[in-house]
Write a structure and sequence with these properties.
Length: about 375
Amino acid sequence: MSSNNQPPDPTSLLSSVTKLLWGRSLPPGLLISTVRTAWHSTWRIMMSQLAPSDPTLGYTRPPSKFRALPNQIPLQSQTSLHLYVGLPCPWAHRTLIVRALKGLEDAVPVSIASPGLDGSWQFSNSAISDPNTITPGPDKANGCKTLKEVYKSRAGGYDGRSTVPMLWDAKRKEVVCNESYDIIQLFNSGLNELARNPGLDLSPPPFKQKIEKWNSIIYPNVNNGVYRCGFAQSQQAYDTAVNELFDTLDTIEDHLSSSRYLCGGELTLADVCLFTTLIRFDLVYNVLFKCTKKKLIEYPNLHAYMREIYQIPEVAETCNFTAIMEGYYKTLFPLNPGSIQPVMPAGSEHEVLLRPHNRDSLLLQGKSESALYVS
């Protein structure tokens, strides 16, 4: 091959750029110092847009704008609901799982967006033969190109954050809710007349207090905790987040040694909320978000618990590992400027997740009534 067809040498290219900007090449030390300062300043600006922070530079998640509980959904809206999700998002994944477990696929159609390089959720024009296929595709409700366009199309418009999941009223052209926990509560108990599996209750009255207790622990320290690690903008904020994350995982690991699920012998909404973070842990959070103290596969009970939930067919069908990895590694530029995607870790491979979990014998006994619930 002719040398004229060879790609330019990166070192020569950098040298040429520095000569253009500053004349003769800068000394290596000065060049590194200059680039480091410029990059750090740019990183701060990008992170401030990506991840709002508190005075310690710890990540602060903005509250959801549109809230709605099951008893607040108008009856006329219940037959015109449309769900918007993105597959990388653990919050959106919750809604897909409960929708599938309750058998609401026909009653609540879904449009699946992909994260764009500019940070927006975008729809593709790919044709989908199966309307329930869990892959990115077009906006089936409004024909929009981006989720932001959908939000803006509501009565009165909207200029806030365009997040997933989002539940849309296709008749009224209105956002019903964009808070994931509100949506899964609605799917669990508010649409039973439309569900194929109305008898399933993932939040039965005797377990409600336990579910709320677990959520109060899991949400700040695990669900949001991994983001507090990854989006920390100071060492202090990172240290606090990572210690709280792994202290909580240690507690759950111990609890699951004698309790099949978080609240005893039955799957609940608390388990769904924990699962969507666990299934992404070794795939993404351990590496990209610096949650490096342990891999999830190093927790025998947690990993087996995750495998058991994954082996529920309706749950496995909602898991798209390719979309999850690409969604994080390819689009979170401030955390991964080169957009290089690592190989899938062994503990997250489909074949490994199908290994026997041996948790069937762990019924409501022993520590299933955990000390966490003792006042």
